[in-house]
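quick one, 135 residues, struct below
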Amino acid sequence: MQVECHPFFTQPKLLEYCRQNDIVIVGYSPLGTSRDASWVNLKSPPLLEDPLLIAIGKKHNKSSAQVALRFNVQRGVVVIPKSFNLERIKHNSQIFDFSLTEEEMEAVEGLNKNVRFVELLMWSDHPEYPFHDDY
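---
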């Protein structure tokens, strides 16, 4: 199941449901999104500028992006960060040589704002618009 999933939108209820039913979540926008107001909710600040993610990254000699990706991987979420930049693609894959502690995982989980970056409000009046549902 592919859904938006990142430290500001951790999807705990959906993740638990999926775990109980042997469904793997594939998280899109695991690093946040571009800041294009025409389709992105700008209520939340840029994910990769979050002070906690930056601080945890410094502790592990990693970037905030690598911490955000590692957080979801440790939770069993498959991440699909988008990039056309070869160096960034390599950087995004360098998350398997460290682990977040239980305390760090809890702290990152605490960043959850239950706010989507990708709302697609231009379709919100469509009868099958999915984001009105609890999941």
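DSSP finds five helices and three strands in the chain.
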